[in-house]
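Exercise 7. Given the encoded structure of a 113-residue chain, write a plausible sequence.
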């Protein structure tokens, strides 16, 4: 079994509330939601963070955003939502498998904390 939490979720080896699954992308609900809708969208491929992206990952990154858009529609987030990719520990990244946070269902503030 992989040591990476999100690789385990992608492989079905760790329980999660899966929202959408395809060969290259998995979306599941965050275990500590910070908004009424809080979903994590990850590549099934283990990529540590945006800082480790390769040129070959460009299409996959586009897929993550398209999946985010589809899920936002399913979750009725027509009034708006926020996509966040924390990159590195100072930015608040705590799981080192690249993930997009999809947050919605409440007013968002700017600048973020
Ligand atoms: P980060 O801080 O790296 O940007 O985001 C990691 C997110 O993963 C956090 O919002 C945290 O609540 C979530 N998380 C951590 N462990 C698990 C888990 O085992 N299952 C799920 N569904 N979410 C998790
Ligand atoms: Zn991983």
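Solution.
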């Amino acid at each position: 079994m992989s040591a990476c939490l999100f690789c385990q979720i992608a492989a079905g080896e760790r329980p999660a509330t899966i929202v959408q699954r395809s060969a290259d992308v998995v979306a599941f609900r965050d275990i500590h939601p910070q908004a009424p809708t809080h979903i994590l969208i990850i590549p099934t491929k283990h990529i540590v963070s945006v800082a480790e992206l390769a040129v070959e990952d460009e299409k996959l990154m586009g897929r993550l955003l398209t999946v985010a858009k589809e899920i936002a529609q399913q979750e009725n987030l027509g009034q708006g939502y926020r996509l966040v990719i924390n990159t590195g520990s100072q930015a608040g990244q705590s799981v080192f498998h690249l993930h997009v946070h999809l947050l919605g269902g409440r007013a968002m503030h700017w600048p973020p904390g």
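Remark. The CA atoms of residues 63 and 92 lie 23 Å apart. Students should compare their own answers with the one above.
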